[in-house]
Design brief:
Elements: H1 2-17, H2 24-48, E1 52-54, H3 61-80, H4 88-110, E2 115-117, H5 122-154
Antiparallel strand pairs: 1-2
Helix pairs in contact: 1-3, 2-3, 2-5, 4-5
Length: 155
């Protein structure tokens, strides 16, 4: 469990201190989307269908804080380095790398007391991570578009 906390601290530390390529409002809007999207998914898959869970059964404050830190940190790091100016294949590779990282990280936390499966399989996650990362990207593009419209109105 200590290794999980250290890894979450390192993710959060990296997300906070890495030089930012995206604006603070983009970080704010996309991070809260990532959090609400992730928590909504977790509520359905964990509490409704009991496919997996965090820590002990039910909700605990320490796992909730860890989940928040992971959702915010991954979102910031993923979008901050997204290769917008690169070609489509490079973008697909970028999503694939983040998906692989997420699968490996999930595999790591499954072998701790932090996360457990109740019918969920790692291949379910492997299928969903590219979709999740694509949704995060398209949400970011929507935020950028809304910001552009807002700025245009102000001029």
């Amino acid at each position: 469990m200590l290794l999980v906390f250290i890894s979450i601290f390192l993710l959060a530390f990296t997300a906070i201190w890495v030089p930012k390529r995206i604006s603070q409002i983009e970080i704010y809007a996309t991070s809260f989307f990532a959090y609400s999207f992730g928590i909504t998914t977790d509520i359905i898959l964990n509490f409704k269908y009991d496919l997996y869970g965090y820590g002990q059964e039910g909700a605990q404050i320490y796992t909730t804080l860890c989940i928040i830190a992971v959702y915010f940190s991954i979102n910031i790091l993923y979008l901050n380095f997204f290769p917008l100016s690169k070609n489509f294949l490079y973008k697909i590779l970028y999503v694939a790398i983040w998906s692989l990282f997420s699968i490996l990280y999930e595999l790591f936390i499954v072998h701790t007391d932090m996360f457990y499966y109740n019918g969920w399989k790692l291949w379910h996650s492997a299928f969903l991570y590219p979709i999740i990362f694509s949704i995060l990207f398209f949400n970011w593009m929507a935020v950028k578009k809304l910001l552009f419209k807002y700025i245009q109105k102000q001029i």
